[in-house]
Amino acid sequence: MIIKAQHQQHFDDRIAADTSIEAKDWMPDAYRQNLIRQIGQHAHSEVIGMLPEANWLTRAPTLRRKAVLLAKVQDEAGHGLYLYSAAETLGCSRQDIYQKMLAGQMKYSSIFNYPTLNWADIGVIGWLVDGAAIVNQVALCRASYGPYARAMVKICKEESFHQRQGYEAVMAMAQGSAEQKAMLQDAINRFWWPVLMMFGPSDADSPHSAQSMAWKIKRHSNDELRQKFIDNTVPQLEALGMTAPDPDLAWDEATGHYRCGEIDWNELYDVIKGHGQCNHERLQAKRRAWDEGSWVREGAMAHAAKRAANAA
Amino acid sequence: MKTMTDAKITYVLRQGDTPLILAQRLCGWCGHAPELEIDLALANIGLDLLGQARNFLGYAAQLAGPGYSEDRLAFGRDEREFRNLLLAEQPNGGFNDTLVRQFLLDAYHVLLHRELSHSKDSQLAAIAAKSLKEADYHLRFSRGWMIRLGDGNEISHQKIQRSLNDLWRFTAELFHADAIELELAELGIAVDPRQLQAPWQELVNSTLQQATLALPNEHAFRHGGKQGQHSEHLGLMLAEMQFLQRAYPNCNW
Amino acid sequence: MTHAEWPLYEVFIRSKQGLAHRHVGSLHAADDQMALENARDAYTRRNEGCSIWVVQSCHLVASQPEDREAFFDPSDDKIYRHPTFYTIPDGIKNM
């Protein structure tokens, strides 16, 4: 008991001093489990996030856009890899947490349960969804757990191209034909509110927030990050000549921030519960890929075993 | 279109269309591969092939003259004007079908680009030299997997063997030379595909042996892709690929 | 429906001639050749590497945090191992 108290004190001191906690360090079990959940769900989000964009890979309107989108989707697979790698340093197995996701026991970001219905959606995802992710991820570069923070730094470096390519694509449409403009406005109308919901409910309504902040896994409140995103984004929206589907969105001179309308949290809770437009399709696609790929993974293992037996 | 009559342009289109169509097929795997690392690998190969396609199509556009671009060639030609090998347009099927298709073409591309990098046309030579490095890596990947799965377990072995038997008939086209190729090979610009057959067969044989796979008994005879006579798959692929450009012509994206 | 997992490998990349290999993360692979290729695809897309090392995680031997004091503190107070401990008169060259 005494030794545990020493460990706890040492851990608390480290957190207070902003010194990284590393893989083999002692940590409270709740901290470990919280991280596995957070990092794991972040990894699942990257991997599921490939699907709505991959939906338009074969239909990209130019070879350059196709190449850029393919590079972006490939990056997302890589980000999933970095994050699963960080999660595994905590003693869980990737296969185990992946199976939990396939079984619906672990979540991924709700935004990926929305369908991509026209090409503008792809640009909007790069601009708004990656934009929101960047705001969140820059904050996490100072997370207390070393491997997670380092994965975030690596991801942030790669992510900024994702947002820029998205904005470039939507700008081309914003300056294009009437049909392209209409397509873009339609995409913004469908994604605007779900993107704001990506930051999660107000912290008062967010069960894990307080503990995550104490452990410096979370560095800013949901509302702070959401506000930062809105302030970044509105000028970008105006530069496109587009509008947000929010009649209450306005600059507030007094606070120096943009005010936005009431978010309908019922929609978020519905999607989290599994009743979004694509929850079923996303999981079905991944379950199928896993099942149909079994023989490949097993065949490779069988071959490796043969090689090892021959070498012995 | 001018492209139909000029021999060199046709030859360059052939070099560009095969990787374009193959890349398009690989796009279909994104997010659906058997493992995350395989998703990364297939996307990497697809991106390389797309880059090669853009290089060749960009050159073809240059030769064709003002008004032509890589995009106009990729999105504006009908099926009968596409010049890719039939093998490239065959469906993804399962990982076994995709892998065998990839391996057969990777072996071909390594040998092709090795020769083409000595072309008297400096542009073709440069594109081929760059493509060769990528093809070497793709072959390493696909050959590795042929061996892993061919000499894996009973199920993986049977699946790969079946795919090999199913796709074999398209391999003849790789070495089929027509008047255009013969004329340009004579000038030192193109590679005579017939020369590639023996080394290709050797490479394939040695891999199949290590993979404990049997050379198919099927007769390899299908050809016509290079001349614009495709299987029923290409039309559907192009309908999907070209949709936005056809539905909204003359737009900037 | 869990089957045997591909083993975990640790990945080290050297970005330029003359520098040392750095640990960049981990990945799963069925064999060593696949691990090298996976590492190349995952960790060198932006020209970050000219040399890759991969090793199965189970073969990596690491010092334990609880041994930290015994392992590392004793070197803390032996300042005579550092050149700045010694005073040399000004004017003496080549030292």
For this entry, give a set of tags.
heterotrimer, A: 312 residues, mainly alpha, 12 helices, B: 253 residues, Ferritin, 0% strand, globular
Account of the protein in words:
The complex is a heterotrimer of chains A (312), B (253) and C (95). Chain A has 312 residues and is mainly alpha-helical. Chain A is 69% helix and 2% strand. The longest helix of chain A is centred in the middle third of the chain and has 29 residues. The mean pLDDT of chain A is 94. By secondary structure, chain B is an all-alpha fold. The longest helix of chain B is centred in the first third of the chain and has 29 residues. In chain B, α1 packs antiparallel against α2 and α4 runs antiparallel to α8. Helices cover 18% and strands 21% of the residues of chain C. Chain C has a 3-stranded antiparallel beta sheet with strand order 2-1-3, covered by helices on one side. Chains in contact: A-B, A-C, B-C. At the A-C interface, α3, α4 and α12 of A face β2 of C. Chain C: Pfam families: PaaB. Chain C: This is 1,2-phenylacetyl-CoA epoxidase subunit B.
What's the topology here?
The complex is a heterotrimer of chains A (312), B (253) and C (95).
Chain A (H helix, E strand, L loop, with lengths): L1 H15 L12 H26 L8 H26 L5 H9 L16 H22 L5 H29 L3 H20 L11 H6 L7 H18 L10 E3 L4 E3 L5 H11 L3 H14 L1 H18 L1
Antiparallel strand pairs in A: 1-2
Helix pairs in contact in A: 2-3, 3-6, 5-6, 5-7, 5-9
Chain B lengths: L6 H21 L8 H29 L5 H7 L18 H22 L5 H29 L3 H14 L11 H8 L10 H14 L22 H15 L6
Chain C lengths: L7 E7 L7 E7 L3 H12 L7 E6 L11 H5 L23
